[in-house]
Amino acid sequence: MTLWEKFCRFTLCKVMGWTIVDRPLKADKCIILGAPHTSIWDFVVAYLYYRSCGEKAKCMVKKEFFFPPLSWILRGMGGIPVDRSNATNMLRSVIKEMEAPGRFHLAIAPEGTRKPVKNWKTGFHLIARSAGVPVCLGYFDWGTKRIGRGEVFALSDDARADMKKIQEIYEQMHLTGKHPEKYVTH
């Protein structure tokens, strides 16, 4: 374990009081969903979790946040700037990155925003199916301060049906967001 990984684990577990339930998937490529996403702090907690386990994950961040010096920090933490105004190009570029040689774990908030939403985004489904990678139902529960990658979800050809099942699984987990009023599963 590197010094940075030890620092991340100390910060996450000792300073912030989180418990790591399970480690990131050992697969070279995967998508890990992160729910509930109600605060920018979810990004920090997820980063500390991944790094404390000796792993690195990428995540999509709206391009408007990429200005110096914040852009340097975000890139260092695995942030990928995305233009949300053109969803098709965004998905193509992420699929291309996912298909490139090397390790690539992509963390995605299925809600797509920190605001309460009933209909979660299914872009991860297209990315995972196109690139042939597994999807983990990762979570961060602010109520119990437990974090983990969760179960691997087997995708079908029906993104809407899969999303309904995924939201049901998250609902059964009884998770609490940092801002509970912003978390909606159905």
Overview of the structural elements:
- The protein has 186 residues and is an alpha/beta fold.
- The chain has a single domain, classed as Rossmann fold (3-Layer(aba) Sandwich).
- It has helices at residues 3-15, 41-52, 70-76, 87-99, 123-131, 159-172, and strands at 19-20, 29-35, 58-62, 79-82, 104-108, 135-141, 146-148, 152-153.
- Strands 1, 2, 3, 4, 5, 6, 7 and 8 form an eight-stranded mixed sheet that branches.
- α1 (3-15) crosses α2 and α4 (87-99) runs parallel beside α5 (123-131).
- It starts with a helix and ends in a 14-residue tail after the last helix.
Describe the secondary structure blueprint for this structure.
Elements: H1 3-15, E1 19-20, E2 29-35, H2 41-52, E3 58-62, H3 70-76, E4 79-82, H4 87-99, E5 104-108, H5 123-131, E6 135-141, E7 146-148, E8 152-153, H6 159-172
Parallel strand pairs: 1-7, 2-5, 2-6, 3-4, 3-5
Antiparallel strand pairs: 6-7, 6-8
Radius of gyration over C-alpha positions, nearest whole angstrom:
16 Å
Q: What is the strand tally?
A: 8
Query: How does the helix and strand content classify structurally?
Result: alpha/beta
Strand content: 15-25%
Low-confidence stretches: none
Q: Please, how many domains?
A: 1
The number of helical runs is 6
Q: Can you give the helix content as a percent range?
A: 25-40%
Global morphology: globular
CATH class: Alpha Beta
**What is the typical, i.e. mean, pLDDT?**
92
CATH architecture: 3-Layer(aba) Sandwich
Order of helices and strands: HEEHEHEHEHEEEH
